[in-house]
């Protein structure tokens, strides 16, 4: 009976191991299959989509916050059709819009008095750089810069500022608005904080040891002062005694002289 139970348990363990191995191998084969990676293979087609569903109320609430807590705002020229190819974008027109940068969201309005934004750009993991004018035609802006989501600058958004200083300010603000960058900065600050905390604890211990040494040395100084005061008192008494003894000897001599003088008289 015991041997049959042992064989049945062994068979169950073997079946379980076989099932686990089969499932893991099937998952591995599915993971490595072409069907599993088909969305990534079609990524260029996905990037060509121009519209997605989004919560309008949430965006409007963020736009209200952006009016109050924005990092950068001002008028910028936006090239219409800048997400198309270079041949069409070179002949596209510029439109003046009011832009507001809030965290990693870039809103643009018809003008500064508009209540609702006309559009929104998500700036997470984006790239921003200066752009040279494409031609010397009338109406071509000089202080241009682009916002793209790939390193090669494809499908970039072209904007232009009134001055080079404003353009550089917008580029710096856009390059530092990424949430991932803030997370990395937070981790770096936490690492520095831990290091400074350790240094502070070490310095606190050293300070406590130094305070103990100072107290011990202060006690020794007090003892030395007491000994010095006792020595001064003893020295003062000895000096007075020696002076008194000298005075007594002189008085004796004077008395002897006086007695001799009296005897002669």
Describe the structure.
With 265 residues, the chain is α+β, with helices and mostly antiparallel strands. The protein has a domain at 53-177: Pleckstrin-homology domain (PH domain)/Phosphotyrosine-binding domain (PTB) (PH-domain like). The protein is 59% helix and 15% strand. The chain has 7 helices and 7 strands. The protein has helices spanning 2-32, 38-41, 43-47, 56-69, 86-89, 164-175, 179-264, and strands at residues 72-79, 94-102, 105-109, 119-122, 127-131, 144-148, 157-160. The protein has a 7-stranded antiparallel β-sheet, sandwiched between helices. The longest helix is centred in the last third of the chain and has 86 residues, at 179-264. The protein is rod-shaped. 11% of the residues are buried.
Q: Give the CATH H-level superfamily of the domain at 53-177.
A: Pleckstrin-homology domain (PH domain)/Phosphotyrosine-binding domain (PTB)
User: What is the string of SSEs from the N terminus onward?
Assistant: HHHHEHEEEEEEHH
The end-to-end span amounts to 152 Å
The helix content, as a percent range, equals 55-70%
**Strand element count:** 7
Structural class: alpha+beta
CATH topology of the domain at 53-177: PH-domain like
Keywords: Coiled coil
Protein name: PH domain-containing protein
Domain PH: 69-179
Region (Disordered): 1-23
């Amino acid at each position: 009976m015991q041997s049959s139970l042992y064989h049945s348990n062994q068979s169950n363990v073997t079946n379980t191991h076989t099932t686990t191995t089969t499932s893991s191998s099937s998952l591995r084969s599915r993971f490595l299959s072409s069907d599993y990676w088909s969305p990534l293979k079609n990524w260029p087609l996905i990037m060509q989509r121009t519209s997605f569903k989004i919560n309008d109320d949430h965006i409007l609430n963020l736009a209200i916050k952006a009016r109050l807590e924005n990092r950068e705002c001002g008028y910028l020229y936006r090239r219409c059709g800048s997400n198309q190819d270079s041949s069409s974008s070179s002949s596209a027109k510029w439109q003046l819009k009011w832009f507001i940068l809030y965290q990693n969201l870039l809103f643009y309005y018809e003008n500064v008095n508009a209540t609702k934004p006309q559009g929104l750009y998500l700036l997470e993991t984006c790239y921003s750089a200066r752009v040279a004018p494409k031609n010397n035609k009338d109406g071509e802006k000089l202080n241009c810069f682009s916002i793209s989501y790939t390193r090669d600058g494809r499908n970039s958004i072209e904007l232009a500022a009134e001055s080079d200083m404003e353009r550089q300010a917008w580029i710096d603000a856009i390059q530092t608005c990424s949430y991932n960058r803030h997370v990395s900065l937070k981790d770096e600050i936490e690492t520095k904080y831990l290091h400074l905390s350790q240094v502070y604890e070490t310095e606190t211990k050293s300070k406590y040891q130094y305070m103990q040494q100072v107290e011990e040395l202060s006690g020794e100084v007090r003892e030395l002062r007491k000994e010095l005061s006792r020595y001064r008192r003893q020295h003062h008494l000895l000096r007075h005694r020696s002076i008194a003894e000298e005075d007594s000897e002189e008085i004796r001599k004077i008395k002897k002289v006086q007695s001799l003088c009296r005897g002669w008289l």
